[in-house]
Amino acid sequence: MGQSAHHSFGSKIGIRYAVATRDGDMGQDLRIAMIVGLTATILPSVGILMVWLQNKTQFAAIKDSMKQGFDAVDRRFDDMRDLWRGELRGFEERLGAKLN
Question: Would you kindly state where each structural domain of the chain is located, as residue ranges?
Answer without folding.
Answer: 3-99
